[in-house]
Amino acid sequence: LLVSGALLPAPQNITILSTNMKHFLVWSPLTALGEAVKYSVEFQGEYERDYANDSWIPIGECTGISATQCDITEDISATVPYNLRVRAALGTEVSRWATLNGLFNRVTTSLIPPMLNVMADGHHLLVELEHLGPAFEFLVRYWRKGQEDQVYEKVVRDSNTTVHLETMEAGAEYCVKAQTYVEAINRSSNFSQAQCVKATESKA
Amino acid sequence: PPGASASHCTLPSPMNVHFVSKNMKNVLHWLPPEGIAEEKVNYTVKYLIYGTNKWIKNSECRNISQTWCDLSHETYDHKELYHARVKAFLNGNCSDWAESARFNPFTDTKIDPPAFSLSSTETSISVIVTPPKKWRRGPGEEPEYLHQIYPSLQYNVTVFNKKIKKRWTFCIKNNSLEVQQLEPNTGYCVTVQIYITPLLLSGFSEERCIDTLKDPTFKQT
Amino acid sequence: LKRLHFGHCVVSVDMYEIRKGFGEIKEMTQAQDQYTSIRLLHRSYSLPDTKTEDRCCFFHYLLEFYLANVFNQCQIYSNFHQRRVSRIANNFLTVKKELNLCDTVTTCPCGKEAIHRYEQILSRFERMDSHSAALKALGELDILLEWIDKTE
């Protein structure tokens, strides 16, 4: 229990979890002090360091919260290095700021191969892609089985609809795979597993 | 700041003065002053080209009783930005001017869903989208197409197979699409959307349907 | 992204992030601008209409103008507004850093036209008090974004 006058300890183990351009700041709770502890998060972009006297900007949604994580996606909105810090408060006591070890740049986010669902409707090759948000495009590659040397490509914008890829030849089998591409950081994920479907035979 | 209000006007001002813009047909709308019976009030409208200090009267919107004013002519140049303002009059009394937010036709217009035509053969349907145009000042005027104003303009076309209840989406840059290898004697329904950026796109058009023709060689068992 | 080609140098501008950030503060910012008779980014000296060889330098001036004189001069009262300005400012900084990677001496020659156009903007800006001027410039971001969009 906190001896009065002793300073509230700063949060520990501050890390960033960043996947598919969704960025979360997480830290360890001050468990000994129970639920009454509140946390506040601030960020500082390169602009704030270079042009605005190293100022820090509070994240409204993560000011005075009990949770030990904060969604910083909306604020990490440029491809520059960001500084992040957290502090605890218990009643009127506040801890010193604990700053992320090293700067965070969204270019380091991990991009996961997209989930996709490949279908054949008659002679039509279709694909459903995961909805990841406007920052994402999908590079879709497809080929006719047995003609692996002739691969077709289509860039598909983020959407939650069934996208028409190609009109297939009757009875032929086609395979499809896709990767995500984020233009803002100029990076792509690995390709997904290929999925193959067959066009209906043509009518006799 | 400039434009201090006239002291003798004591009527409450019109409310919510704003532009409603579709394909750059720009109409100013407002609500009557609070607590005043709508039908008795008259209004006068002025507009200003941002960056100038001249509030310009609109001859067709002086002492009008309706709560809108078509300023499409006056705001036709979409490289300019505009402000508009409205004053209310009742029984010799008047209100202060009520001003709109700054209006930028290029970014603030809403895009109407496009019109399109459909045709079909036994195994295909063709969609031809009518290239959307900017509002024109008169029928004789040379149309300006939206794809000239927004070069990145594309179309999302959805095709719904009524038999298998499946919907496909096509993204096309030019304004025509032919979908081949379809089932004969089958109903397909189509809608079209204009897509410019994630922040500027139209709604989907009304759905229109067509059947592929019967396959003459196909014998009914 | 919008890609601007200045000679062999290519600079990309994340129009979506900037437009999204600005769209959320546009009405609030422009509503505070009482001086509707002044337009800083006047169409008579727009970026797309600038001579090709002067465009890079004029663009460089505009970036630095916003970074140094606008984003940090606006007295911002709400956390929401502050965070959106930070989003725009850090994206502008990304563009400026890319431009700095180019060999600006050859890619970004500063001819008379670039300097003259920039001075037009600065002189109007300096005739106003700094807070009102910064607020006006911030409110005119939609004009600058249109210039960037239309620059071939």
From TrEMBL, chain C:
Pfam families: IL10
Cystine bridges: 9-102, 56-108, 57-110
Molecular function in Gene Ontology: cytokine activity
Compartment list: Secreted
Keyword Signal: yes
GO CC annotation terms, alphabetical: extracellular space
UniProt keyword annotations, A-Z: Cytokine, Disulfide bond, Secreted, Signal
SMART domains recorded: IL10 (SM00188)
Top-rank taxon: Eukaryota
Designated name of the protein: Interleukin family protein
Organism whose genome encodes this protein: Eublepharis macularius
